[in-house]
Amino acid sequence: MSDSVKSRTGGGTRRAAQAEATRRRIIHGARELFLRNGYAATTLDQIAGAAGVAVQTVYFHFGNKATVLKEVVDVLAVGDDEPIPMLDRPWVRQVREEPDGRRALAIWLSNSRVIFGRVAPIMKIIRDAAGADPEMAAQWETNQRQRFIAHHALAEQFGDKQALRPELTVEEAADIVFTLVSHEVYFLLTVERGWTPDRWEKWINETVAGAILR
User: Fold this and answer.
1) What are the phi and psi torsion angles at 213 (to 5°)?
2) What are the pLDDT digits (tens) for 10-30?
3) Which residues pair with 136 in a beta bridge?
4) Alpha-helix residue ranges (DSSP H) falling in 79-100
5) Cα(194)–Cα(190) distance, integer angstroms
6) Which of these, 86, 188, 75, 79, lies nearest to 127 by C-alpha position?
């Protein structure tokens, strides 16, 4: 490879890394502002200021405030900004490969606890704003749909493991998990009622296992 090609390749790599670093700063700054001020009161100018960039840079990377929020939620849900869907994450593969239904459920719920700890506060902001803001309503519906897809996939795995209660269909099991393992229930117990995340995890394991597993 010639020096000129190497130089161009290296420059492109550096620019890509700089662009990713800028996106991370914007997402981090937006998250702090959304949590402190709410969605409606947060402006793109404020997000740009928190990230130390021009507002045009925010527009370039995200286009609008709703897309910034979506990226904040996506990063919080998986814990990083790698382009790997949640259902392709290593811990989900552990759930699939674990033959015992109760141990598989425990792996799922342990990771759910970590995810809820990151994402529940921002989801409460979205839910509270959904009634008056169409963009927030759309974001809430998208998240609920994605959460159901994940829990339906989990219920299918329990079916494949022959771990479901015999009177339950996969659809019914998915409905139960979707309802119980939710941001709303987590927030009610850990914030409104003061439970620790440890207590929530113990309770949700016992409750879901008793509701859907043999």
Assistant:
1) -100, 150
2) 567 888 889 889 999 999 999
3) none
4) 90-97
5) 5
6) 188
Which single residue is written with the structure tokens 């439970």?
A: 195
Q: Would you state the structure tokens that stand for residue 40, as one six-digit string? A: 């409606």
**pTM recorded for the entire structure:** 0.83
- Which has the closest alpha carbon to 111: 126, 96, 122, 123? 96
> Is the CB of residue 129 less than 8 Å from the CB of residue 40?
yes
**Average pLDDT score over residue span 2-14:** 60
Distance CA 70, CA 145 (A): 14
Q: Contact at 8 Å (CB) between 81 and 27?
A: yes
Cα separation, 172 vs 208, whole angstroms:
12
Helices (H), the chain: 3-37, 44-51, 55-62, 65-78, 90-97, 101-130, 134-160, 170-180, 183-187, 197-212
Angle (CA) 139 87 137, round 5°: 10
Q: How far is CA 177 from the centre of its chain?
A: 16
* Residue type (1 letter), 167: E
